Amino acid sequence: MIRVFLAVELSQALRDELATVQQELKRSLEQRMQGSTRISWAQPASIHLTLKFLGDMDEQMIDRLRAALEEAMRSQIAVVVPLERIGVFPNPQNPRLLWVGPSEHWERGEEAKRIVEIRGAIEQSCEGFGVLREPRPFSPHLTVARIKMGERHVSVALAKSGVLDRPLSLGALAIPSVSLMQSTLTPTGSVYTKLWDVRLRG
Fold first, then answer.
1. Cβ atoms of residues 178 and 51 within 8 Å
2. Which of 14, 34, 41, 158 has the smallest C-beta neighbourhood within 10 Å, fewest atoms?
3. How far is CA 26 from the centre of its chain?
4. To the nearest whole percent, how much of the chain has pLDDT over 90?
5. Fold of 2-199
6. What is the pLDDT of residues 19-71, one digit of tens each?
7. Is residue 186 very low, low, confident or very high in pLDDT (cuts 50, 70, 90)?
């Protein structure tokens, strides 16, 4: 059994841009932070757009999954996601996760519908392998940090900094293909290895 998930890999240029955003965000928060907090910042080399977490899977099923996804992605058109803002999950009053992603305006548009269709095709393909559908609606985002302690202090610092209200000019994440990634847990964190990828149309 191997632990796997489906994701979109980032270019090195985009990873470098994200590292700069992280440094600026960290500096901005530290200047305004009061009280004990613990924030785990994602390593830029490990940041990716997760499309579907599959969990532990029999290695003998991997090739069959690839064939199913190749068939499903053949009708899906490549899409580009603009990275225009910093956001939080679940909400600004109780931030547990900091992310970079598209604007709310983009998420209401036609391009956003295409990525939802891609995700839906992936969900349908994975059902044949005993993987349950994700009940929550899909929102494309790149996780840059996780708040482990002191959410209220981080919430206040975010409000003072105004970073959640300012537009971000970070370029875009192209989605020309979907990769199957293996996640291996080590003492220093998870190590991700690409096993294969399948291309979208166009």
1. yes
2. 34
3. 19
4. 76
5. Cyclic Phosphodiesterase; Chain: A, (3.90.1140)
6. 999 999 999 998 887 878 899 999 999 999 999 999 999 998 999 999 999 99
7. confident
Q: For the segment 70-125, what is each residue's pLDDT rounded down to a tens digit? A: 999 999 999 999 999 999 999 999 999 999 999 999 999 999 999 999 999 999 99
The string of DSSP letters for 74-96 reads TTPBPEEEE--EEEEEEETTEEE
| Cα Rg of the chain, angstroms | 18
Q: What is the amino acid identity at position 173? A: L
Distance CA 22, CA 176 (A): 25
Match 């199913």 to its residue by tokens. 68
Residue 125's H or E segment, with its range, is helix 110-127
List the strands of the sheet with 142-149, edge to edge.
38-41, 142-149, 94-101, 85-91
